[in-house]
Write a structure and sequence with these properties.
This protein is α+β, with helices and mostly antiparallel strands. It has helices at 7-26, 31-50, and strands spanning 64-66, 71-77, 80-85, 92-94, 99-107, 124-131, 134-142, 149-151, 158-159, 164-168, 172-177, 182-184, 191-192, 198-202. It has two helices and 14 strands.
């Protein structure tokens, strides 16, 4: 499955590849066109791999929160988990908890490496999901290559845990806040999968 919002990139790469392939077959005296066609094929393959969006079976539960992104945890501070997505990771983001999207705030900004502290100035899109445990912030942060954050959801939408809420093209980062009702169960340096990895569990003193 290909991620929603990636169609223009795939169409452009495939169109350029097809053009060079046709020109190389029609003009044998210009071998560089053949090389360009092969490079275009490689680029198209990269785009297909990068924009993949595999189906994942999500076990929905009120007793834990799940990762909103694929990647590696680069920081945990002030009950905020920061997940850096490398180029090889799936870049579709998912809701870590069920609830209603109370607000979405988009901010323009720079394109510093998303793992840098100064990336607070980068382009970002912040979801506030109002859950039964309070507000949960999920912030998509663009990286050095990314030039667009794609949102799949709108204000007042009801989202289920693990539901797709957006995508960041190319290198990027996702931060998620953890309500005080939960204990964080992951560590810095740990690899996580969106919709699969449990990042926090409900505290034992909660009475259900």
């Amino acid at each position: 499955m290909i991620a929603k919002g990636s169609e223009p990139w795939l169409f452009t790469a495939a169109s350029v590849t097809a053009l060079f392939a046709i020109l190389s077959m029609a003009t044998d005296s210009l071998p560089y066109l053949n090389h360009a066609a092969h490079m275009g094929m490689a680029l198209t393959f990269f785009m297909v791999v990068f924009f993949r969006d595999p189906e994942r079976k999500v076990e929905i539960s009120d007793t834990y929160m799940i990762s909103p992104a694929d990647g590696t945890i680069i920081d945990i501070r002030d009950r905020k988990i920061c997940i850096f997505m490398f180029l090889q990771n799936v870049h579709v983001n998912r809701a870590p908890i069920s609830g209603r999207i109370r607000a979405i705030t988009y901010k323009k900004g720079g394109y510093l490496p998303a793992f840098c502290k100064d990336s607070e100035r980068n382009e970002r899109n912040e979801f506030i999901i109002h859950s039964k445990y309070g507000d949960v912030r999920v912030t998509q942060i663009a990286g050095t290559i990314a030039r667009r954050i794609v949102s799949y959801s709108g204000v007042n939408d009801i989202v289920e845990q693990g539901q797709r809420i957006g995508m960041i093209r190319f290198g990027s980062r996702v931060d998620v806040t953890i309500p005080h009702d939960f204990d964080i169960t992951v560590q810095k340096g740990e690899r996580v999968l969106a919709g699969k990895t449990v990042i926090a569990t409900i505290k034992n003193d909660r009475d259900f």
